[in-house]
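pasting for the record
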Amino acid sequence: MYEVKTQLSFSAAHHLLNYNGECENQHGHNWLVEVFARGNSLNESGILIDFKTLKKELKSILDELDHKDINLLPEFQNESPSSENIARFIYYKLKENFVQLYKVSVWETSTSCASYFED
């Protein structure tokens, strides 16, 4: 089994819904997103997935979030934009083009992240 990982970052504001604490107030993060792909076989170039292609697709998704208030985006109108939900959002957008996609992790800080993957 092979696994590859790439990462990109974006900056955005959000506030959590149905939360009792400071995070119910609007605040921002410099988010770090890690994308993991897994597979048993490599292509004729000896790679699982082209980092350049994966990063390009990830960047286009993160551009939708970058320097935005995530709560105002249509995808999060009725859903709290927690790290968990943002990871799931990115995962399913990427999964459309990358069958080897395994997991997406979203870091709010250098010590706190949430991940999404399918069983």
